[in-house]
Each structure stands twice: as structure tokens, then as C-alpha cells.
């Protein structure tokens, strides 16, 4: 399997996402560089989970290293705000301005 954004995304969606979803969380692929940097963000309950670093270093890292053994990967967690959280905040703020 070639090391591309789409192939990394596929591995994350097939192998990591279902396991994180069992806990109300998830992972989103942000970027893959030619140098092997893979930037991800956690979603849902994983955003605030105290085990986030362990999940990144064990489950996500090992899964990608097994899928792309020829690559020298650097996994980077990017702190972003989940789209669902943004939408909830917008709804609350809209409601407050209408009152």
C-alpha cells in the first residue's frame, strides 16, 4: 500500500475509528507530509480523554506502522475543536442573541 493521504485515511477509518467509536470518540486525519509526518486530531470523547497520549502512541501509531512498515512515521496530535462542538456552541449563542 502506498503512503498517501487517502491510504492513511483508509487505515484510520477501518482499523482505528471503530475502536475509538466504542468509547464515544474518534480520530480525524488532518495532513500527511512527504516527510512522513501524520497529523491527526481526536474527536468526540477522545478530545478530552486523559488517555489520549497513550492512545496516540500505542493504538494509532502501531496501527499505522503496521500498515506502512517501509515509512518512518512521525505522528502528531493537533488540538482542534470538533465540528459537533462548534455547531452546538453556535446554536447556544444564536439562541442567547435571540432572547
UniProtKB/TrEMBL annotation:
Origin species: Porphyromonas macacae
Gene name of the record: nfuA
Lineage, broadest ranks: Bacteria, Pseudomonadati, Bacteroidota, Bacteroidia, Bacteroidales
Molecular function terms, GO-annotated: iron ion binding; iron-sulfur cluster binding
Domain NIF system FeS cluster assembly NifU C-terminal residue range list: 8-71
GO biological process: iron-sulfur cluster assembly
One of the Pfam families matching this protein, by short name: NifU
Signal sequence interval, chain numbering: none
UniProt-recorded name of the protein: Fe/S biogenesis protein nfuA
